């Protein structure tokens, strides 16, 4: 096959890859998406390269990565069985976005080859048929390209005998992955080895609670202030803002005074406070006073001596808690 014909075939394959790209949003991860994944190189014309022939292998890289995922490392495994002397092999790996890396271009002696090509390995010595070695051109030429795509591995046999292929693999590492499958990508995950979609980190040390041997204690979060007395229908005491009421007898001024306190503004400002007198049997309601803007209230002390206390809270304020003050004694004037 001529050079122009081979180029056309490769372009057709690459065009198909661009049309069928993978598009998976990180938020749509339903299972772990490993950073490093291995994909088979599938021949379009059988597993044997004919004498003076050529074979094209499609590598569909679709590891569930997002469209934004980029290549950070590539390794290639070659399983070859050279069956004739005076054979020379040229293998290249091309990405659908264009760049090509030459994996090998060298004479090949008869026999089996089990080679992994890795930029971080040592040089590939002549005659070596097994091991981990550097490719002829760095695979780093493919770094930064879109990870999810169609790649093409092309093998040319310049020899008088066939070359059988097996276990042809491409291993790709991506910068966008979700190892634990919790929907948070590893680069942002405060615990990439264990699922924790909520990313809770009580002590704020950057390590999520599920990975932290000393996670600390849950912070106390105050409820947000409210601007009026809440009246949410159907709300029970379990969702009420806590509040307290106190009561003092200012005997010289002949006044009863106190304060309603709450983190919720609407549960202390302009709310009713009931003054009671203790009696044998049923206590008697004496009066109802309304607090001011700060929650403070003052009322003339009752003429009748006895023990008095204040209460706050009613069914009309379902989001505000109830409380009873201490008892104070009012003596004869």
From TrEMBL:
Region feature Disordered, mapped onto this chain: 180-206
GO-annotated molecular function: calcium ion binding
InterPro entries documented for this protein: Thrombospondin_3-like_rpt (IPR003367), TSP_type-3_rpt (IPR028974)
Cleaved signal peptide residues: 1-30
Domain of life: Bacteria
Pfam families per record: TSP_3
Protein name per Swiss-Prot or TrEMBL: Thrombospondin type 3 repeat-containing protein
């Amino acid at each position: 096959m001529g050079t122009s014909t081979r180029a056309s075939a490769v372009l057709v394959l690459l065009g198909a890859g661009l049309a069928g790209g993978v598009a998976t949003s990180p938020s749509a991860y339903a299972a772990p998406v490993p950073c490093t994944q291995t994909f088979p190189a599938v021949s379009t014309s059988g597993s044997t390269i004919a004498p003076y022939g050529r074979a094209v292998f499609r590598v569909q890289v679709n590891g569930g990565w997002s469209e934004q995922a980029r290549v950070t490392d590539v390794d290639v495994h070659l399983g070859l069985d050279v069956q004739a002397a005076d054979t020379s092999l040229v293998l290249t790996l091309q990405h659908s976005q264009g760049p090509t890396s030459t994996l090998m271009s060298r004479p090949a002696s008869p026999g089996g080859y089990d080679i992994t090509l890795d930029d971080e390995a040592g040089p590939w010595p002549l005659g070596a048929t097994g091991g981990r070695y550097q490719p002829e051109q760095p695979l780093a030429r493919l770094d930064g390209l879109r990870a999810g795509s169609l790649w093409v591995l092309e093998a040319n046999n310049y020899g008088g005998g066939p070359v059988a292929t097996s276990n042809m693999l491409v291993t790709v590492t991506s910068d966008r992955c979700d190892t634990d499958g919790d929907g948070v990508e590893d680069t942002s995950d405060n615990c990439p080895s264990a699922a924790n979609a909520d990313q809770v980190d009580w002590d704020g040390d950057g390590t999520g609670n599920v990975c932290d041997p000393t996670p600390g204690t849950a912070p106390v979060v105050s409820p947000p202030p409210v601007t009026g007395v809440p009246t949410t229908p159907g709300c029970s005491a379990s969702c009420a803002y806590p509040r307290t009421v106190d009561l003092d007898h200012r005997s010289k001024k002949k006044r009863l005074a106190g304060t309603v306190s709450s983190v919720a503004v609407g549960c202390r400002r302009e709310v009713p406070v009931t003054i009671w007198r203790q009696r044998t049997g049923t206590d008697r309601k004496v009066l109802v006073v309304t607090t001011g803007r700060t929650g403070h209230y003052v009322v003339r002390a009752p003429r009748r001596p006895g023990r008095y206390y204040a209460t706050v809270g009613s069914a009309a304020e379902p989001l505000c808690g109830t409380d009873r003050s201490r008892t104070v004694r009012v003596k004869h004037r």
